[in-house]
């Protein structure tokens, strides 16, 4: 009897979750539409939407246009009922975003703040966060939590930042960082967070690989609306895949890693540290920059072909370089196609949708998803 009760409760929760996700996905819907599309009986749908309205998660929008019978009541997600903050910590900046329950980016800012593993730094970040919320008149009890994105190995099992070359830290417990903030904290590797932002709005359940080309090179596997983390939370760390045996030294101690050839620094250092300026000069056709880009994309094509061979899935190019690569994606397609023995086109590679603050947004979305899972 107890088992049957548990099963019934699980079914009821699953139905409610499916119904809420459906409403959240569409702009306006109705009980009959939900019932038809989800293949759930109308009485069950009606009971669940009533509960969601009482909880504040769904609101009525008035009567819809008649399709021949009684006009149905419109239903929509109460997107601003709860909000999530995304915080992306890098070597020199922090990014803050605010997102609602539908995943819509409401506000964002990027602040120059060099990282220091000191209490004064974390206290200042919290101060900047509170200022950000004050500026946008955010009611604090609406905040579900903060998703924190960092470059490095974020081990959810050990609940620690196991290692970050960029930030020069290792074995930092989540609890240490969380103590500086007034909200529940959730942690993600920056490439995982970027992948999460890309995958959150996709209808497809297919797998894709997110290649993050920023100050360091990282990656993430996203499949069936979830991140594939790996046994030690290092899944997707292609930055240390060997591209050229005995090539130039990488910061990791090996030689010839992809990071050596395809980090954004490889390009920005040619333009006084400005990636934007590099692409401006590339667009003007300056020979030195055209040559550098040709070399960069040649090595990038090797990595893309290797990833495709291993995972046989689409690849999204994100990170700092991903924000600019859309204009040059055909060049990348051509070089990848030349290397691939199975395909004549490289169209399985595509530029990221979220060109800016993807990691911060993905971190915020992970907080929202954790909340929605419990609806």
Tell me what you see in this structure.
The structure is a single chain. The protein is α/β, with parallel strands linked by helices and 375 residues long. It has 13 helices and 15 strands. A 5-stranded mixed sheet has the order 5-4-3-6-10, sandwiched between helices. Strands 13-12-11-14-15 form a 5-stranded mixed sheet, with helices on both faces. Strand 11 and strand 12 form a beta hairpin. Helix 9 (275-283) packs across helix 10 (287-311). The longest helix has 25 residues, at 287-311. The chain is globular. It starts with a helix and ends with a helix. The model has no long low-confidence stretch (mean pLDDT 93).
Sequence-ordered SSE layout with sheet pairings:
Blueprint: H1 2-25, H2 31-38, H3 42-55, E1 58-63, E2 73-77, E3 83-89, E4 93-100, E5 105-112, H4 119-135, E6 143-150, E7 153-155, E8 160-164, E9 169-173, H5 174-178, E10 185-189, H6 190-200, E11 208-213, E12 217-223, E13 226-228, H7 258-262, H8 265-268, H9 275-283, H10 287-311, E14 314-318, H11 319-322, H12 329-339, E15 349-351, H13 358-373
Parallel strand pairs: 3-6, 6-10, 11-14, 14-15
Antiparallel strand pairs: 1-2, 3-4, 4-5, 7-8, 8-9, 11-12, 12-13
Helix pairs in contact: 1-3, 2-3, 6-13, 9-10, 10-12
Biggest beta sheet attributes: 5 strands, mixed
Radius of gyration: 23 Å
Outline type: globular
What is the number of helical segments per DSSP (H or I, 4+ residues)?
13
Looking across the biggest beta sheet, what order are the strands in? 5-4-3-6-10
Beta strand %: 15-25%
Structural class, please? alpha/beta
Secondary structure: number of strands? 15
Helix content: 40-55%
Averaged pLDDT: 93
Series of H and E elements: HHHEEEEEHEEEEHEHEEEHHHHEHHEH
Gap between N and C termini, in Å?
25 Å
Unreliable sequence segments? none
